[in-house]
Amino acid sequence: MNKISFKIGLLFFLAICVLEGISMFVLHNNIIHSRVHEELSALQTRGNNHRDVLEASFHDDTVMHIAMMEARTDTQVVLTRPDGSIYMSSNKVTDEMKNIMKSKPKKVPHEGLILEEDWKNATNIASISPVVIDKKIAGYVYMFQTTQKIKDLIAGLNQHFLLASLLSLLFMMIIIIFLTRVVTHPLIQISEATKRISKGELSVSLPKLGKDEIGDLGEAIKVLANDLEILKNERNEFLASISHELRTPLTYIKGYADIARREDTIKEDKDKYLEIIHEESVKLSKLIKELFNLAKMDENSFSIEKENVHLLPFFQAIIEKVAPALKENEMSLVLECAENLYAPIDPVRFEQVIINLLENARKYSEPNTNITVSVFESEGKIHMKVQDEGKGIPTEDLPRIFERFYRVDKSRTRSLGGSGLGLSIVKQLVEAHGGTIEVISSPNVGTIFDIII
Fold first, then answer.
1. With 146 labelled, which of 108, 184, 328, 386 sits at a CA distance of 20 to 30 A?
2. Is the whole-model pTM more than 0.85?
3. With DSSP H G I counted as helix, E B as strand and the rest as coil, what are the percentages for the chain, rounded to 5?
4. Would you say residue 413 has pLDDT above 80?
5. Inter-axis angle of helices 184-198 and 213-261, nearest 10
6. What is the pLDDT of residues 324-367, one digit of tens each?
7. Pair (140, 243) in one structural domain
8. How far apart are CA 427 and CA 175, in angstroms?
9. Tell me, what DSSP letter sits at residue 395?
């Protein structure tokens, strides 16, 4: 065991050393590059600011003001004429600065550019910004900054990195000794279990690893494996369901479109087929919209904007919308709601909930039956019940009616061919309001959906 612990500890130490070395090197270089880039960008921006001032007011007073400003900073500004002669300088222009100015390209973009960025070897970094007045070059603004500031910063950064590296190595050695002697064995078991899970072997088993954090980790691995197996099954079922749901309307659309295109198809039949194509297109559009809504709910990217809604006119407005469809089915709808009831809900989202439940009640009820909407307060909570006298839901199906793509009617007929997403959306919207939804149903008696807010 000691040999195994030593080998694992040594390998772990070497791996961490390499990883830390690479990380430190990359981080060090990135910080230096970022800091130097910031200095260069700040210098160029400063020159562009002076350039903007001069373009707005090119006078001796303005030039002198800029020179006085820069004379009190760690940067130096030099203003030259178009021919290269110096018009103004905030401090003495050295020979190196003159050499940098001579390296000016023939064409300088208006946003300026960096002339010298070699902070390691040069004495100054430099930028140039052209002054354009009436579309003509009136001069050039050169900005210089000593590289000593950057070098001092890098030297301090190097000291911090060296100290951090030494402390990291010391701390890492202590941790490795502890890990290899105390937790190596159970971690190896957990590692082997996770490898089996990654290969698809989800029915893993682990020995009891104690009641500490490692034991909790082992239990979490078991739970994870079970959840992954459930998720895998649900994913397969979801993909199969959505594939079928998309295939069905597309099959109708393609089939009836092919028939309607035939030259021997009479106009009456074409109109009927086009109507079917339109219906299936609407269903397909609704399915995609519902999938989009579910995706937003899963990502918590949809918003609930609650307001204190007066429930009686709220439900009366909804009933007016669904009344024509109920009348067509020779069904009646009864609303039972007190006058003074209010509830904190999002009216737009909750209208979607109620209409979905009423639409289900209409589809699964026979003509000459009643749908009752009861809204009342009980024990400080608002109840909203939608009750029909329809086919009802079998007892074995009740626990799954809020699952995505689950449908009690397995025939998937065109008349009752919903997407199986409506009740799932209803449940998520109700829960987003902090409420619950319950269902009571008996075959051939009816169904009651009770929303509690």
1. 108
2. no
3. 55, 15, 25
4. no
5. 10
6. 888 888 899 999 998 999 999 988 889 888 988 998 888 888 88
7. no
8. 49
9. G
